[in-house]
C-alpha cells in the first residue's frame, strides 16, 4: 500500500510540474497577451522568441527544461522518503528496484503534463525541452548527447522540429548503447517516440519542403510547431 501511495503522489507531482504553462504565463505577465493567439499559436520557446524576444524565450526554454529536471528529482528523493514514512524503511535492494520505476513513471507523467496541461484544457507543447530536462536529470551523458545533436542540427538547418526529432532518436540510441536500468530505457524509448509523434505535422511539412526555418517571420512563423 505504501508503495502505491508514494508512486501515485509522485505521478501527480510530476504531472502538475509538467502542466505549468511557462510560455503562456510569460506572455500574460510581460505583455498581457495569450501567446496562443500570436505567431504559430504555440506555447513553446520558438513562438515566444518570435513574439516576445530572446530573453523571454530563454526563460521559457530554461523553465521547461527545469520542469523535467524537477520531476526526476522528486521521483528519486521525495518518493523514497514518502515510501519510508508510510512503511518500515525500505532496504537498499528495495530502493534499487523501486526507484528506477518511479523515475520512469515520473518522466512519462511530466511529458504528458507539458503536452496535455490541465491549465490549458489539456493542450500544450511537444515536450522536447521538458524531455531534455528529464534526460539530463536521469542520465546526463544521454542528455548532453541529445542536446549536442539538437544544437548541431539546428546550427546547420535552422529547423527546430528536425533538430528535436533527431535529438530524440539520438537519446534512444544512447540509452540502449550504454548500460542503464530497464525502466530508464523504456522511458527514453517511449518518451522519444512520443516527442516524434507529437511532431507528425512537422514531418509532413518537412516532406513537402514547407517547414519554416528559425529566423523567418511573417507567414512562415505561423507554421512553426510547438516545442
TrEMBL record:
Subcellular location(s) of the protein: Cell membrane
Listed pathway(s): Lipid metabolism; phospholipid metabolism
Membrane protein topology class: Multi-pass membrane protein
TM spans (from-to): 6-26, 57-78, 98-119, 131-153, 159-178
Cellular component terms per the entry's GO annotation: plasma membrane
Primary subcellular site in the record, as a coarse category: membrane
Pfam family, one: G3P_acyltransf
Catalysed reactions listed for this entry: an acyl phosphate + sn-glycerol 3-phosphate = a 1-acyl-sn-glycero-3-phosphate + phosphate
Superkingdom classification of source: Bacteria
Known EC number: 2.3.1.275
Gene Ontology MF, one: acyl-phosphate glycerol-3-phosphate acyltransferase activity
Keywords from the UniProt entry: Acyltransferase, Cell membrane, Lipid biosynthesis, Lipid metabolism, Membrane, Phospholipid biosynthesis, Phospholipid metabolism, Transferase, Transmembrane, Transmembrane helix
Record GO biological process: phospholipid biosynthetic process
PANTHER family: GLYCEROL-3-PHOSPHATE ACYLTRANSFERASE-RELATED, INNER MEMBRANE PROTEIN YGIH
Binding partners and assembly: Probably interacts with PlsX.
Its biological purpose: Catalyzes the transfer of an acyl group from acyl-phosphate (acyl-PO(4)) to glycerol-3-phosphate (G3P) to form lysophosphatidic acid (LPA). This enzyme utilizes acyl-phosphate as fatty acyl donor, but not acyl-CoA or acyl-ACP.
Family membership noted in the UniProt record: Belongs to the PlsY family.
Protein name listed in UniProt: Glycerol-3-phosphate acyltransferase
Amino acid at each position: 500500500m505504501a508503495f502505491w501511495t508514494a508512486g501515485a503522489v509522485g505521478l501527480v507531482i510530476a504531472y502538475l510540474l509538467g502542466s505549468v504553462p511557462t510560455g503562456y504565463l510569460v506572455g500574460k505577465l510581460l505583455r498581457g497577451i495569450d501567446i496562443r493567439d500570436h505567431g504559430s499559436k504555440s506555447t513553446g520557446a520558438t513562438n515566444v522568441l518570435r513574439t516576445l524576444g530572446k530573453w523571454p524565450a530563454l526563460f521559457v526554454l530554461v523553465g521547461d527544461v527545469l520542469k523535467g529536471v524537477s520531476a526526476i528529482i522528486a521521483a528519486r528523493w521525495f518518493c523514497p522518503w514518502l515510501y519510508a514514512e508510510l512503511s518500515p524503511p525500505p532496504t537498499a535492494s528495495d530502493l534499487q528496484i523501486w526507484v528506477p520505476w518511479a523515475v520512469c513513471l515520473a518522466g512519462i507523467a511530466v511529458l504528458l503534463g507539458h503536452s496535455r496541461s490541465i491549465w490549458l484544457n489539456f493542450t500544450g507543447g511537444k515536450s522536447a525541452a521538458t524531455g531534455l530536462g528529464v534526460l539530463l536529470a536521469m542520465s546526463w551523458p544521454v542528455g548532453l548527447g541529445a542536446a549536442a545533436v539538437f544544437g548541431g542540427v539546428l546550427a546547420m538547418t535552422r529547423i527546430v522540429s528536425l533538430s528535436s526529432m533527431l535529438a530524440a532518436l539520438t537519446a534512444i540510441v544512447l540509452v540502449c548503447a550504454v548500460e542503464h536500468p530497464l525502466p530508464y530505457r523504456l522511458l527514453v524509448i517511449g518518451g522519444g517516440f512520443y516527442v516524434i509523434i507529437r511532431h507528425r505535422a512537422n514531418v509532413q511539412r518537412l516532406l513537402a519542403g514547407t517547414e519554416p526555418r528559425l529566423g523567418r517571420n511573417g507567414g512562415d512563423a505561423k507554421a512553426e510547431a510547438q516545442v
